[in-house]
Amino acid sequence: MTGFILETEGLTKQFAGFVAVKDVHLKVREGTIHALIGPNGAGKTTCFNLITKFLQPSAGTIRYDGKDITKAAPHDVAQDGLVRSFQISAVFPHLTALENVRLALQRPTGLSFRFWKAEHVLESLNERARDLLEAVGLSEFVETPAVSLPYGRKRALEIATTLALEPKVMLLDEPMAGMGHEDIARVSALIRKVSKDRTVLMVEHNLEVVADLSDTITVLQRGQILAEGTYEEVSRNEEVRQAYMGTGDE
Amino acid sequence: MRLTKLALATTALVGLATGAAQAEISDGVIKIGVLNDRSGLYADLSGEGSVVAARMAVEDFGGDLQVEILSADHQNKPDVGSSIARQWIDQDGVDLIIDVPTSSVALAVQQVTSDTDTAFISSGAATTALTNDQCAPTFVHWTYDTYALSVGTGKAVVEQGGDSWFFLTADYAFGHQLEADTKRVVEENGGQVVGQVRHPLSTTDFSSFLLQAQSSGAKVIGLANAGGDTTNAIKQANSFGIVQGGQQLAALLGFITDVHALGLDVAQGLTLTTGFYWDRTDESREFSERFGERMNGQMPTMVHAGVYSAVAHYLKAAAEIDDDGGKAVVDQMKTVPVNDFFAENGEIRADGRMIHDMYLVQVKTPEESEKPWDYYNILATIPAAEAFQPLEQSTCSLVTN
Amino acid sequence: MQTILGIPAPLLFGQLLIGLINGAFYALLSLGLAVIFGVLNVINFAHGALYMMGAFVGWFLLTHLGIGYWPALVLAPLVVGAIGIVIERTMLSRLYDLDHLYGLLLTFGLALIIEGLFINYYGVSGQPYAPPQALQGGYNLGFMFLPAYRGWVIVASLIVCFGTWLLIERTQLGAYLRAAVERPELVRAFGINVPLMMTLTYGFAVALAGFAGILAAPVYTVSPIMGQNLIIVVFAIVVIGGLGSILGSIVTGLGIGLVEGLTRTFWPEASSTVVFVIMAIVLILRPHGLFGRPRE
Amino acid sequence: MSDRPAILEVRDLHAWYGESHILHGVNFAVGEGEVVSLLGRNGAGKTTTLRAIMGLVGRRTGAIKHRGDEIVSLTPDRIARRGIAYCPEERGIFASLTVEENLMLPPVVQPGGLPVEEIYELFPNLKERRTGASGTRLSGGEQQMLAIGRILRTGAKLLLLDEPTEGLAPVIVQQIGASVRRLRDLGFTILLVEQNFHFAARLADRHYVIEHGVVVDRYSRDDINQRMGELNKLLGV
Amino acid sequence: MSEAVMNLRSRGGRRATSWILAAIGLAIIIVAPLIGLYPVFLMKLMCFALFACAFNLMLGYVGLLSFGHAAFFGMGAYVAGHAVKVWGVTTVLGIFGGAVVAGIMGLVFGAIAIRQKGIYFAMITLALAQMVYFFCLQAPFTHGEDGIQGIPRGTILGLVDLRNSLAMYYFVAAIFLAGFLVVYRTIHSPFGQTLKGIRENEARMVSLGYPVARFKVLAFTISATLTGLAGATKAIVFQTATLTDVHWHMSGEVVLMTLIGGMGTIFGPVVGAGIIITLQNYLATMGSWVTVVMGTIFVICVLTFRRGVVGEILARLK
After folding, report:
1. Minimal Cα distance from C179: which residue of D?
2. CB–CB contact B40 C124 (8 Å)
């Protein structure tokens, strides 16, 4: 039995006039795939932004890997191995796939502040970058600018970039959003593959994917946790069925 | 920057046919650059009027010299002024730079002209530094300076009982110098200075400065500024009821154009020191009327008159020695006294100061004024020897060595 | 003489009053800037130049057409507003889809053109413009002599600022404006001609600048550079107040005028710098300004 | 096609946001007094379709006929003036306006809009909150009611509703459903974008499924039950 | 703003073209004064070209428009002028000092303004620069309206007399080339790669663990230092340092140079500076019409010519 790598306690975020996330106690077990689901506007992305420190919580604490990161800066938690993706694909559009991945590889090298060094010192990272691209099936796109990749490939590139940082926890915000069946299958397989020795927390709408991949599911509604458990447990929950599938009326 | 090359054909080119024996004058032409403020707060007192005056001097000279006149706007910025001067000298072969109001610009130009052996005669600048620490063998200071102004106005006002002063000073070389000189005169004559405030060049709102002057309780508010700054300060002082409140304004440097701009209603009673008044003698009237014909009836300021006088004197000297080297011509100018409508028995001293009589004048009331531009009553003539800093006090290296 | 912290009381009160007068101009100008920024997302660098034009229109009306101050007080803003409308229609409106910085650059270029043209024709020394007959003279307030015209400046500017605030906060038209600031698209989808509204807003806001200009004409001399340095102070005020905040711009404008007055009494050398120092401090403590909402 | 005269007819509609081509030839029609829903997954182009009808996309081509007139080249305000009202996905409540100001904001474009009292009757919650400060202080459900309520005043007869149930509690969803049905009874024509398929299924007369920017299928109310499995797959539920 | 910038970037043959252009440029720099061009004009041009290149580092490569670069330019000039004239330090040291002080100011301004974006950043830098302007108006060492005048040109290590304008010219050329190379290297370095990442997708860079603000501040500091270098050199060339150098018109001028030349291109700012300085020189006879012409160019550039000369050429070549 492994411990919890990521925990939130009483996590709350208030925006002018309304509460987006309310008193959320989330526990993510190390080495699992944990999905966060719920209808649009339930606060999933806000949760993500809070955990990765892109937003400052109004109340509550966040613990990651035994440390309190409630007050940490977003780049610090990323350096500690808590790395996120974004809902809209987060590539560097006018850089090639290789350069995209290399930007992530470059960060831990400490080269990034060296404005007096020539660019080609980065070429030593190319091999590792190619490996990563291969791992996500992008070998043939190494020199392609990210902007001209098809949508699904962009998501794959994003995952390769994230993987380059060797994260302990990957937070994926709707990795399947806007994908066709074919892409979904590929990215699902990819997520399964990369989750081997790390933790994944993801927000996803596609319940099939969620059912297929996740060990634990947390259902959010209106900023609060509605239910938590395995897919079977959660899908049996009547409240969840109502909230998620909708009941119509009467 | 405005470099107006005047076509020579009709006016400035004199004696085309006789230009044969001018081996000593570089490229055969004497080029005079009129460098002054053509768009700013000193544009009225120098500006186009100085160009007109220089042109008249060239026409009147009539000798067998080829003369070309250039003009430019230095915008009262030292960097602009010095780079125009440099370019004129390096590229256009200018032999004489004339006028240059705004002391800071004149000092910058002085650096350039003394490095390049170019003659420089200032009519518009006021600071005495030009003939002291910063003096140069190529330089003549023609019309007035802060010393002369302070002797005239400072002394007269203290003698009338204005024995406590507060200065409103333009925050650059000229203002500082004028303030210091006047302070000395005031104190020598038994008055005291209770304070001063510095304002930036081209200030639009003097209200807070005037308020400080008012609360200082000084009897006299000395305006150590010039041109548009002076008229603005006087106008606003009027609206804040300062004179009605019992304080007296002393414009340390006032030009006839300032009085014209203010109108006699506001300006009446002001005491000024000037090097020239158009309505003083027949000669000055004759010049001024010719000047006025070309300037929509405007009468010349002392700067304009000085430019005419200086250019005429320069051309005479250059023709005499047939040379246009800066030091050579200035040396020649120093040997001959200046005698024209502007100066009687004027003399250019070793330090470059042209000394001549100055006049203490008072602005007429509207009732006293009988014709256009009839603005001054001459109260006293300050003899040349008293008006200017004695040569023995000069710190100019040309004198001390 | 009574003193406060070693400063004669009349001087202190006098400086504060003068500060308030300056603040009245700041408020009028920063209000216009805030409105333009709110609705068009443009930082109007030409605001200072248009303020100057307001003064010049007044001067021009007087010297060339013999039209006096009171009609000019209405005509000058109208003329400047019309010029603003032309600027918006022909140039600014073509930049809305681009980065907002282009609006700043365009209006910067316009400011150069306008100021350059006026300097060319009128020089920088300034033209005199006398206060109207009814407002000549002044009142002795005991601590200082207040020229009647300057008193009127405060009153007129407060009336216009308050009126604008009412218009924006309390009318249906104002509701359209406020809504358009938040979601211009949706407001347009409700059937409101938002581009027209933007044009009129720009026209109105620069008319405010024109009004400030004609109001300033008798106080300062009418000079092509009168708006040049003022505009940057007003920028700082808008940043301090919070970009786009109507009330913030008015209050901050008046407040900064007073602070400048105070500084002029106690540390005159710092009086032109103080507004920028305040801006830096505000930015460090409250990046979105005193009255602004945090931007997401 | 329904037997009723078409109030809105969309033919080969293409739409772009900047460089990205979102709609690739959408075809459908809405009859007078009908409730029609557009279904599809996230990013399929449902919202873009509504926005394209309102003229709120970067560029569009094709034909959009409203009561027989071509409106594809009109600006959004002209389109709205013809009596088409739009209720956006995030509800579009204005934070700087009070509840009442929000409600009164959209100008009346045609006679025959609902009087304010009737709107309050439809959404009683709003009446209680109308004097409250900012419109964004309302709960999600109240905001949705306000968003729908305010376009009823304008006299527009064709309502475009984008995901009115998004993020709302079941009980509120029921309330909204009842209101939409009332609106249909009052003679409004409604084009509805929904993710909550069950909600849409009970309200709409017909459904169109959009995928990758084209309409891929069409269901009548009666088809729904038989073809549920197929539909589930299409929607990826 | 960055859209146009990004379109200009292409790979491959660009590097070779750059080398050829660089060689031509170097040849022009060496020959120019020998074929009778006015050295003072050329020196002015190079000072402003360096200024524009430094400025472009922020606008073109970080995507932040600073409207306050005159503060660094002017302060570089004042510090160098004061050090050389009053303290009597050597010319090289004076110029170095000017650059360092400007760099430190850049660090401070950066720390205050860098978290803001777009217009906010522009306005704040403008206001901060205006604060510096007023400081320079008041501070005794700048001599207010008078400026620092008569700065001696001095010598290089006592060997080369810089009063000789040809010697001064090659000295300025060396500084310009050095500055230009620093800009070039910065852009094409791991740091430059990081800046590109930030410009393309800032949030993603944060999520990759980059302390984005620190990178921007460093870029701002480099830009300010080089700007100070340009200002200091200008002060030595013209032997004056005045308020013109810190006035916001100067900030506007450098924006215009970069815009007309092509922001986000290596040579754009140089070309832009060349165009503007030449234009100012030839239009000098037109008095204050110069301002009008500058403004008109500004408006035309913004409305129709946003890629600038070099940007336009590159786009055509593609």
Report:
1. D94
2. yes
Together in a domain, A175 and A213: yes
B and E make contact (3+ CB pairs below 8 Å): yes
pLDDT digits (tens, 9 = 90+) for C179-206: 988 888 899 999 999 999 999 999 999 9
Q: Which domain covers residue D201, as residue numbers?
A: 6-235
Flag the least confident range among B130-134, C180-184, D32-36. C180-184
- Residue D80, chain C, CB below 8 Å: the answer is yes
pLDDT at position E285: 63
- In chain C, residues with a C-beta closer than 8 Å to the C-beta of D113 are none
Instruction: Please indicate whether, in this complex, the C-beta atoms of B211 and C221 are within 8 angstroms of each other.
Output: no
Token pair for B295:
């300037």
B399 belongs to a structural domain: no
Distance from CA of A195 to the nearest CA of E (A): 18
**How far is residue A131's CA from residue A125's CA, in Å, rounded to a whole number?**
10
Residues B180 and B320 in one domain: no
A156 vs A153: CA distance, rounded Å: 5
Q: Please, which residues 107-146 of chain B have a Cβ atom closer than 8 Å to chain E?
A: 107-108, 111
Q: What is residue A35's three-state secondary structure?
A: strand
Q: What is the pLDDT of residues E72-86, one digit of tens each?
A: 999 999 999 999 999
Please name every residue paired with E161 in a beta bridge, in sequence order, or none if there are none: E155
3-class secondary structure, C227: coil
DSSP3 helix / strand / coil % (chain A, rounded to 5):
40, 25, 35
Interface membership of A112 toward E (CB under 8 Å):
yes
Q: Is E157 exposed, middle or buried (0-12, 13-18, 19+ CB in 10 A)?
A: exposed
Average pLDDT over residues E133-162: 87
pLDDT, position B7: 34
Nearest to C114 by CA among C201, C210, C50, C187: C50
Give chain E's end-to-end CA distance (angstroms, integer).
20
Q: What is the pTM of this model?
A: 0.87
**Does residue D1 fall inside a structural domain?**
no
Q: End of a domain among A166, A199, A231? A: A166
From residue B265, alpha-carbon distances to B236, B273, C52 in Å are 14, 20, 28
Asked if residue B397 belongs to a domain, the reply is no
Dihedral of CA atoms D134, D136, D140, D144 in degrees, nearest 10, equals 80
D164-214 pLDDT, tens digit per residue, is 887 677 778 888 888 899 999 988 999 999 877 778 888 899 999 998 889
Contact A248 D201 (CB under 8 A): yes
- What's the mean pLDDT in D63-85? 92
pLDDT in tens, E288-318: 788 899 999 999 999 998 888 998 888 888 7
Domain span at residue C252 reads 7-285
Q: Looking at the domain assignment, is residue B89 inside a domain?
A: yes
Q: Which residues are CB-contacts of E96 (< 8 A; sequence separation ≥ 6)? A: E232
Q: What is the CATH number of the domain that holds D111?
A: 3.40.50.300
What is the per-residue pLDDT across B278-310, written as a single tens digit (0 to 9) for each? 999 999 999 999 999 999 899 999 999 999 999
Burial classification of residue C256, based on how many CB atoms lie within 10 Å of its CB (0-12 exposed, 13-18 middle, 19 or more buried): buried
Edge-to-edge order in the sheet of strand B96-99 = B4-5, B67-73, B30-36, B96-99, B119-122, B139-141
Q: Which residues in chain C touch residue D97, judged by CB atoms under 8 angstroms apart? A: 175, 178-179
DSSP codes joined into one string, B152-188: IIIHHHHHTT--EEEEEEESSHHHHHHHHHHHHHHHH
Using pLDDT thresholds of 50, 70 and 90, give the confidence band for residue E1.
very low
HSE toward the beta carbon, residue B387, CA cutoff 13 A: 24
CATH number at residue C68: 1.10.3470
Our answer on whether A and B touch (3+ beta-carbon pairs < 8 Å) is no
